[in-house]
Design brief:
Helix content: 25-40%
Distance between the termini: 97 Å
Number of domains: 3
CATH class of the largest domain: Alpha Beta
Strand content: 15-25%
Low-confidence stretches: 114-125
Oligomer: single chain
Number of helices: 17
Structural class: alpha+beta
Length: 467
């Protein structure tokens, strides 16, 4: 038999225990649902991957409203254009998610904007169906198609930007894959030695070859080491600590001529001389300002670029080789596209991005990514580089890029791989007097950039200009 006082004590004790249990529950709920919001973006978050068969998931669209990803009535996700596989990505309960499917999942799944106690409580207990919003990317379908068709089956990548806004107009990586078949093909794709899941545009690491001469020229001009009118001379070769660098990599390499000609005809020995005159500190400072030595801030994951390997001795010989684009340099096609875009935009870099808008039907709900603008090259130096790059095309050093009535600026690159082959590079922008597109192309083991990569860039530019 319980006396009244004993009963009251037990009621109070039971109430206190209940309060403690509820407190622990809501504390855990707050921690996991409110404070640990980072877990929502984990690729293997069960709630994220459970959306792979969500019939209410939003679509991914190109800038004109064309469908790049949608959910079929069966719940399966459909991807009609394999050329955009790397930027659109996939979503699967086993292999996780990637690309825009991952980055913009909160909008596509209808969870965007949910936060705080009420949203957390609702998410736990109501389990009401959500309807996702559509996500519109910056991809231009005509330019994307031209990039995909012109690169064809060659292993490599193409990136096209609007230099005024940083919007990615096209991004192609080959080999590609079918995101809709990731559940079936995933194991094979992971083991494939050609790495089809690798987005070569953002994560492929390559020596830039002579496209890096844009960086060396910018540094030399900004630091007063040379001017456009400076005469340079090479008589056969330039020897650095016993290491010979030939002038004979191009027909116009031997002799005396303005520095502009050394850029136009891509004379390695002259750039080696200029690099040594600059010194490591000044060349590195310019390269870092233009994005080397770090991972580029972008919508998708990017590979870090580098000037030298960690711990490497900064010798004069390595400096000479770095100045003309070899040495231990590594870069991505997206990084080289941003350098071309910065030159095109008068020295101001508009941050590259892939997300354009969130759509509810035909209504724009919100802007996805706002670009930032940063001056990375002096205006006068950018104008000089613009002129230098126009001279490359005007002198016939880039096949298939010249467009009648349009000034096109470009720079070739043939990057030695160390295995007896060369990657073919080309960066460009047009129209040079009012640029609206900047392009970077790499064809792995493709040979000469002027022969292989330049025509690919030309096709992309023509598509962008409606030619």
């Amino acid at each position: 038999m319980l006396y009244p006082r004993q009963f009251e004590r037990r009621v109070v004790a039971t109430g206190n225990v209940s309060l403690v249990v509820l407190g622990v529950f809501f504390a855990a709920l707050a921690y996991w649902q409110v404070f640990r919001t980072d877990l929502a973006q984990e690729k293997y978050n069960p709630r994220l991957v459970s959306a792979f068969n969500d019939p209410g998931r939003g679509r991914i669209l190109d800038r004109n409203g064309g469908v790049l990803a949608a959910t079929l009535p069966s719940g399966q996700r459909s991807y009609p254009d394999p050329s955009v596989a790397h930027e659109v990505g996939y979503i699967d309960p086993r292999f996780g998610s990637s690309g825009a499917e991952f980055v913009f999942n909160s909008f596509l799944s209808g969870r965007a904007g949910a936060g705080g106690w009420s949203a957390a409580f609702s998410a736990e207990f109501s389990r009401t169906a959500r309807t996702g919003l559509d996500v519109r990317l910056t991809i231009d379908p005509a330019i994307q198609r031209a990039a995909s068709q012109s690169l064809g089956a060659r292993t490599g990548a193409v990136v096209a930007l609007d230099p005024r806004t940083g919007e990615v107009l096209a991004m192609v990586s080959v080999p590609t894959f079918d995101p809709g078949a990731i559940a079936k093909d995933g194991d094979q794709l992971v083991k494939d030695p050609t790495s089809p899941l690798l987005n070569r545009a953002t994560q492929g690491s390559y020596p830039p070859g002579s496209t890096f001469k844009t960086v060396t020229a910018i540094s030399a001009l900004e630091n007063g080491v040379i001017t456009p009118q400076t005469s340079v001379t090479c008589a056969g070769q330039y020897v650095v600590d016993g290491f010979p660098i030939s002038c004979n990599n191009v027909v116009q390499g031997n002799g005396t001529y303005p520095f502009k000609n050394a850029f136009t005809y891509s004379v390695n020995a002259i750039f080696a001389q200029v690099g040594v005159a600059l010194g490591w500190d000044r060349l590195q400072a310019t390269a870092e300002r233009l994005g080397f030595g770090q991972s580029l801030n972008f919508t998708l994951d990017t590979a870090p670029t580098q000037i030298t390997n960690p711990g490497t001795a900064l010798t004069k010989t390595l400096l000479a080789n770095t100045a003309f684009g070899q040495g231990e340099l590594l870069t991505t096609p997206l990084e080289m596209a941003t350098i071309a875009a910065a030159i095109a935009n008068g020295g101001v870099l508009a941050s590259p991005h892939l997300g354009l808008a969130v759509m509810d039907g035909n209504t724009v709900v919100d802007r996805l990514e706002q670009p930032t603008f940063k001056r990375v090259i002096g205006a006068d130096v950018a104008a000089t580089l613009n002129d230098f790059m126009v001279s490359v095309v005007d002198a016939g050093q880039a096949a298939g890029v010249a467009i009648p009535g349009v000034k096109v600026a470009g720079k070739t690159g043939t990057a030695e791989t160390g295995s007896g082959t060369s990657h073919a590079w080309f960066i460009a922008f047009a129209p040079a007097d009012n640029p609206t597109i900047a392009v970077a192309v790499i064809a792995e083991d493709g040979g000469r950039g002027s022969v292989v990569a330049a025509p690919i860039a030309g096709a992309v530019i023509k598509a962008a200009l409606g030619r």
